[in-house]
Structure formats: structure tokens, C-alpha cells
Amino acid sequence: DAKTTQPTSMDCAEGRAANLPCNHSTISGNEYVYWYRQIHSQGPQYIIHGLKNNETNEMASLIITEDRKSSTLILPHATLRDTAVYYCIVRPRGAGNNRKLIWGLGTSLAVNP
Amino acid sequence: GAVVSQHPSRVICKSGTSVKIECRSLDFQATTMFWYRQFPKQSLMLMATSNEGSKATYEQGVEKDKFLINHASLTLSTLTVTSAHPEDSSFYICSADRGSEAFFGQGTRLTVV
Predict the structure, then answer these.
(1) pLDDT, tens digit, for every residue of A27-80?
(2) What is the mean pLDDT of residues B7-15?
(3) Contacts for B88-93 with beta carbons within 8 Å, 24 or more apart?
(4) Which of the residues B31, B100, B101 would you substitute to probe the A interface, choosing the one with the greatest number of A C-beta atoms within 10 Å?
(5) Of the four listed, A44, A97, B46, B78, which is most buried by Cβ atoms within 10 Å?
(6) Distance to chain B for A77, nearest Cα, Å
(7) Whether pLDDT at A100 is above 90
(8) Contacts of A88 in chain B (CB under 8 A)
(9) Are the C-beta atoms of residues B74 and B52 closer than 8 Å to each other?
């Protein structure tokens, strides 16, 4: 079973920030929070990951609470092309089979014009 | 650009025939690759972990004789769906780790008629 819970769906207006929450209350100390998205009929795309500090890259920002039990992915200026299913996954760092990803149902984000 | 290439993107086959799907890591070596299956409106389900030079590790409930995995080189893993049936129709996705990130192929839409 997935170790994360996310809202099933969200809407966002084009140009506004999209804030996608994720709960991972059972996260272990060696587990990172990863975010991926999947546009319809395509393979998932990596967005960002973090351990305990907030992270930012060209796609998004990741805010992790101090207790690490939840996080928020922020798309600062959502566009229509950001419409996708967003997955939050916890995963230990390192190589090998223990790094296999367990996927939940994710959040279906609809960006509206 | 893509770092994991999957081929073909779409395939239609007759019931009872076999279909091979290729997954290649581009410009990096992948000792481990992962194969997923995704049914409509569902999340990705891990089928098996492909290990270069050794046998694949299958998830519970996945028939290893039906879904043959070969990982003969550090850049190529193949999944062969043998004696395909309509219930095998699905979206198949591979992934490979480069460093701490997982990269995904474009996916293969298999339709068995």
C-alpha cells in the first residue's frame, strides 16, 4: 500500500499557484519525498524531491513540514500544460530493489483557462 | 530530452500471440529497471524488478512465465507478454534509476484483440 494520501482532485486557475498537499505521517528517517506527474497516456515525469529542507527547481517548489509528516508541492504559475495526475511518493535513498516506488492514486489537477 | 526510451509506444496484437516491449536507458547504465502496468483510471502497479545479469524479481500475483523479462545489458531490458489475452490490454511503463532519480519510458499501450 502507498504510504501517502492525497486529495483525489483539485482545480486551479491558469496563472495562479497550484498547491498540492500530501500526507505521509509514517515516513521513516531515511525516506525522501518524491513528486512525479503523469500527463494522460504518457510515462510519469519527475518533478522534485526532498528530505527535510524545502526545495525549489525550475518546475516547482516543495515545502516539507518540520515533522516531515506532510508536504506541499507548489506550481507557482500553473499553465494548461500542467493538467496532470500528481503523485507524492516516499522512497528510501540508495540503490537496489528497496527503492521500488509504490504508487497511490495521486491528485488529478485540472488547470482551467 | 528523454533519458529512458521505450518502444513501441502502441501495439495491437491478436489474442494468443506474444509481444515484446523494449526499455533502453540512454547515456547511462541501469543495473536495475522496473516494469509497471497501469489500467485505466488506476495507478501504476509494479510488476517486476529487472536485474542485469540475473533473474527478475516479480511482485506477488504476477506470472513470471507469462511476463518474461530479460535484462541482458546495462542499457536494455525487455518485457515479453506471452500468449496475450484481452485482459492483458493495458499501459506498460518501464523505469530506470539514474542517481537518486527514477526516469520513466513513454509507456506502451498494448491492445489485445
Answers:
(1) 988 889 999 999 988 999 999 999 998 999 999 999 999 999 999 999 999 999
(2) 97
(3) B88/B112, B90/B37, B90/B38, B90/B39, B91/A41, B91/B37, B91/B38, B91/B39, B92/B21, B92/B35, B92/B36, B92/B37, B92/B38, B93/A43, B93/A44, B93/B6, B93/B35, B93/B36, B93/B37, B93/B38, B93/B44
(4) B100
(5) A44
(6) 23
(7) no
(8) none
(9) yes
- And the C-alpha cell for A63? 515545502
Do A103 and B107 count as a contact with CB atoms less than 8 A apart? no
Please tell me the distance in Å from B18's CA to the nearest CA on chain A.
22
Confidence of residue B64 (pLDDT cuts 50, 70, 90): very high
Cα B89 to chain centroid distance, Å, stands at: 13
Nearest to B46 among A34, A95, A100 (CB): A100
